[in-house]
Amino acid sequence: MKIGLITSGGDAPGMNACVRAVVRSAAQNGLEVIGFIRGYEGILDKDYTVLKNENVAQIIQRGGTILKTARSKRFYEREQRSLAAENLRSLGVDSLIAIGGDGTFTGADLLQKEHGFKVVGVPGTIDNDLFGTDYTIGYDTAINTVVEAVDKIRDTALSHDRIFVVEVMGRDAGFIALRSGLAVGAEAILVPETKTDMGRVLKRLEGRRKSKQSAIVVVAEGDEFGGAEDVAKAIREKYTDREVKVTKLGHIQRGGNPSAMDRVLAGFLGVGAVEAVVKGVSGVMVGMQHKNIVHVPLKNAIKHHQDVDDNLLRITEMLSV
Ligand code: F6P
């Protein structure tokens, strides 16, 4: 039996640790692994490399992905997916393991539905926005990166009595903003999942204005009010005597050595994916719920975007006074 392996969509720290886990557990089960380069693009171009135990040595600690990744536009086309299925079969690949986020899973689901090709997804995205898994690979590292950066911003904000609006990643999801915002003690956190009441945000900063204190406002890039620049503008208009600075953390959040949490999660899910393949399971994402490996239909993982934890929202509100 031969497994095809891809990392696809936005890279996430811990993808390499997962590639290692897939390759090594497949070898233990007597299965071959072919790694396609740049996700679905590599399948379409038949650009691949055979992966053996020795090829995945010394990668557990490395950020990015040795297989490279891409957001394949071509894979949106039905004919291209036919070509992909044909290429996979001509190489003797029986099942595809796809490490990525919602775009990756959408493609995998279509490959299965249209061509009966066996697919197993592994949640790998810094956004943590997939339903059916407590965490996605890369999320823990990303929020730790944010915390480290904002702690530094806090030092200079305090020294100058400035307000900083910090924009973090999350086009459609506020999980990075919410959890890292709580961890840095942000005075306000703006996420796409809840309606932003700018009046309320400004009120929150009111006390700070009087005492000339610094403040940190964390905003997810996908917030409906706008990005960090828009939020800063609104604050400047109301509090004309305050200095308001903007920092966009950007792609720094996607890089770096994976945290211990992400490496361990990647190990569990990589092994879980191979075990699913061995059992003949297909069309599912392998996730982790309360320390248990679970199988969630790909379409549910994508469609039922994880709910924002109400308790987290409540605690954040309560503590950022
Ligand atoms: O999906 C992960 C993510 O980092 C999002 O948070 C962000 O909006 C997006 O990818 C950025 O993608 P790209 O690097 O392709 O611009």
UniProtKB/TrEMBL annotation:
Assigned keywords, A-Z: Allosteric enzyme, ATP-binding, Cytoplasm, Glycolysis, Kinase, Magnesium, Metal-binding, Nucleotide-binding, Transferase
Class of this enzyme: transferase
EC numbers for this chain: 2.7.1.11
Activation/inhibition comment: Allosterically activated by ADP and other diphosphonucleosides, and allosterically inhibited by phosphoenolpyruvate.
Leader sequence residues: none
Residues that bind substrate: T125, I126, D127, R162, M169, G170, R171, E221, K245, H251, I252, Q253, R254
Active site feature: D127 (proton acceptor)
Gene Ontology BP, a term: fructose 1,6-bisphosphate metabolic process
Domain called Phosphofructokinase: residue spans: 2-277
GO CC field: 6-phosphofructokinase complex
InterPro entries for the chain: ATP_PFK, ATP_PFK_prok-type, PFKA_ATP_prok, Phosphofructokinase_CS, Phosphofructokinase_dom, PKF_sf
PROSITE patterns given in the database record: PHOSPHOFRUCTOKINASE (PS00433)
UniProt name for this protein: ATP-dependent 6-phosphofructokinase
Gene from which the chain derives: pfkA
